Amino acid sequence: MSRFAGATGLAVARVTSQGLQFLLFLMAARVLSTADFGLFSMAYAVILGLTVLAEAGWREYVICCDDPDQVRNANTVALASGAAMVVAGALALAVVEMTSAVGRFGAVGLMLLAWVLLRPLTVVQVGVLTRAGRLGSVAAVQWSAEVASFAGGAAALYLGQGVLALAWGKLALLAVELTGYVVCNRGLSFRVPGRRAIREMVVFSREILSARLLGYLQGNFTTLAIGIFVNASTVGVYRAATRLSGTAQEVIREPARFVGWSWLRRAKDRDDAGTGDGTAFRTASLQFLEIVIMVGCALLVPMALLAEPVIHVLLGAKWNDAAVLLALLSAGGVTRLVSTLSDPVFPLLGKPQITRSLAVVTTISGVGCFALALPFGIVAVAMSDIVAGLLACAIVVVFLVRDGGLSLSQMALAACPALAASCGAVGAFAGLGALGLTAGAPGLVSLVLQALFVLAVYGACFLAVRRVAVHRHSAPALNHVWDEPVLSRPLHEEALTVSTAPLRVAVVIASIGRPTDLGHAVRRLLDQTLPPSRIILSVVADTDVPPGLPPVIEVVRGPRGLPAQRNTSLRALAGEPAIVEVISGPKGSAVQRNTGLLHLAGNSDVVVFVDDDYLPSRFCVERIAAFFAAHPDVAGANGFLIADGINTPGIGVEEAEAMLDAYDRQPRPDPAPLRDLEGLYGCNMAYRTAATEGVWFDERLRLYGWQEDIDFAVQVSRRGRTVITNAFAGLHRGVKGARTSGVRLGFAQVVNPIYLNRKGTMSAGFAYKLMLRNVIANHIRTLRPEPWVDRWGRVKGNWIGFADALRGRLVPERIEDL
């Protein structure tokens, strides 16, 4: 399963999870009392805090680690941290039971201590699967676990377990998750880490843990404080209101995140390809802000106005006290809509630190407002959410104007139609109540009729006010925002730029252990008639970087691991892209190339992957740009190889330079495609960037990544032609050294084709011929092996691969254990 499909599966699993949890909440609200629900909320808030401390950053640590022993260390430390938090939780529960009259708090907490113990171990298994790129497996397990949680909780409610039913649901989720992840990872293994390893893990997790604790306090501080200073019944009412308003806000926030990043990223690319003055980015930001506020008000304002019938219909009469809280919290959600814009804007401008600062400031202001309001009652607490939201909105607006380059007047103009329409809806709803037009209608019918009326008034007012605002102020950010679909506008404008400027060609080179050879390749790229827009060197360690780099090179450093490197990339993209950028990450051809793709972040028209021992013709980049501009149906291409030293001892640099100079003096070759290919040769392959969106090199093909180039090319070929052409050329030196051992390569020669055939990216005939040709060659040439090839090692690896295949154990990752 591709990474894109896995990510899609995770999104579906998340939607399913939210739906099932909300449905179980509605069922529980019909059965439990407000005090019981509040009791569970308090107990779970305590348990969640212990779990956050126990999980630390073990999942992220595993994602970034390379050594299998580090995974075993993480399993041990995760279980130990869970056990430590269980002891702390048991002591806390004992104190609560002795000093409090709260009914089943201890029983619920005691049941959920199993969650604290095993949850850290579970997230480590998620990290292992994520590191292997098996997002589809994660999605399948999560979906199964949520179904089990819903079934377990619903069954326990039916059997009369009361508040314990919600705890049973959580334990069912944990049991299915842990079992599923362990099965996917083929078991668990533990190793007692040394002091140095423990110190390394603690240092790694420190920043992650601090961020997690901040998020925990944002979501659970109010629950704990109300429980301590008021009572469990009030907690239950408040949590019910926050659950309903929070669900509505999540419906807005999640799609807005996806659309905002996608839309603004394309606008940023258009700016980079054009004048670079940021006009497209600012215009897209204002359009996005208008849409978010329009949709958010259309959902939250009716919920605030109809809070009483919503509570009565969904939860029942015993929850009526939550109606006023729901109205106030929904209004508070409106004040936070502007903050949605800050999530993509500042990282895309290369200022992610502002996002972190905003999170800290808004958390502090929220907690401060809550603390001041708590002595005045629960309604005052809900009102303080509006005050905190207004403060957060003001702070975000200041940063957007000062650091985001947006105009305060145009932001106000973008928000004006939705806010004016909200006021109109409030007035119309007040008139509807005064006239009593829905009196006597059943509860659900009355709710639907009132909601439709409010939405109709809101929509009419919005369109009227917006029309007036556009005509009077001639705001360019608001004009024609509805004339074209969101996703069609950037594509249309990009298509216009192709014919007026050369295509931007970026080059990605994955390398390890061959800095001198990599230096020769970089110098050839810097000597092009049309320089590449970017040259990204994806390495593992500082020793892989070529010595004596020219002074024009800018080196971008980042911590090891894809998430951290992606953040480094976003910061680097704040200004003009560097000519050459060096990024470090995990070892392996596939993962290093993915690291380069992530760092590239779509900021090119064509991306070229070359080996570190590939030397291009001086006209290579210029002719790649011309070839893709002339053939819009081509998604990927291999160029002409002047020579290939892969089956020889290798070609020296001086000999290669002489061959390249001789080729460059010849007449320009025919730039047409020669023929279509099933896959491309990885030493030099160029792709149209638009065709690679959502396609990744398979990181299960570890280390040398044998045939990962075929797998990638076949996926891209579903979006356009993959061809070979004489339009551009280069030379593959075939340097020997820093290569995978013969045993490992022989294993990959058998297992990888079978794996890719089952995956669907290599035909059975191609896989059979490829495997048979290499296996026969290895056995025959053991009689007279080449000095530069470990034929006996390859034969041994071939038979290990066959043995695994016969046992049904097709695990390409095993190459790392050989």
Short structural description:
By secondary structure, the chain is an alpha/beta fold.
Describe the structure.
- With 818 residues, the chain is of the alpha/beta class.
- Helix content is 65%, strand content 7%.
- Strands 1, 2, 3, 4, 5, 6, 7, 8 and 9 form a nine-stranded mixed sheet that branches.
- Strand 2, helix 20 and strand 3 form a beta-alpha-beta unit.
- Helix 9 (232-273) packs antiparallel against helix 10.
- The protein is globular and about 90 Å long.
- The two termini are 25 Å apart.
- 48% of the residues are buried.
- Residues 1-7, 473-500 and 551-578 have low confidence and may be disordered.
Radius of gyration: 30 Å
Q: How many β-strand runs?
A: 9
Structural shape? globular
Helical amount: 55-70%
Biggest β-sheet: count, sense, barrel?
A: 9 strands, mixed
Low-confidence stretches: 1-7, 473-500, 551-578
Please work out how many helical segments DSSP would assign: 27
Q: From the helix content, strand content and strand pairing, which structural class follows?
A: alpha/beta
Rounded average pLDDT: 77
User: For the terminal residues, how far apart are their CA atoms?
Assistant: 25 Å
Beta percentage is: 5-15%
Compile the SSE list and pairings.
Blueprint: H1 3-31, H2 34-55, H3 58-64, H4 68-99, H5 105-131, H6 135-158, H7 164-184, H8 195-229, H9 232-273, H10 279-305, H11 307-314, H12 322-335, H13 339-348, H14 352-373, H15 378-402, H16 408-435, H17 443-473, H18 488-498, E1 505-510, H19 515-526, E2 534-539, H20 562-572, E3 580-584, H21 589-600, E4 606-610, E5 614-616, H22 620-630, E6 634-644, H23 653-664, E7 673-676, E8 684-688, H24 708-717, E9 721-732, H25 742-759, H26 764-781, H27 791-806
Parallel strand pairs: 1-2, 1-4, 2-3, 6-9
Antiparallel strand pairs: 4-8, 5-9, 6-8, 7-9
Helix pairs in contact: 1-6, 2-4, 2-5, 2-8, 2-9, 3-5, 4-5, 5-7, 6-7, 8-9, 8-14, 9-10, 9-12, 9-13, 9-18, 10-12, 10-16, 10-17, 11-12, 11-17, 12-15, 13-14, 13-15, 14-15, 16-17, 20-21, 25-26, 25-27, 26-27
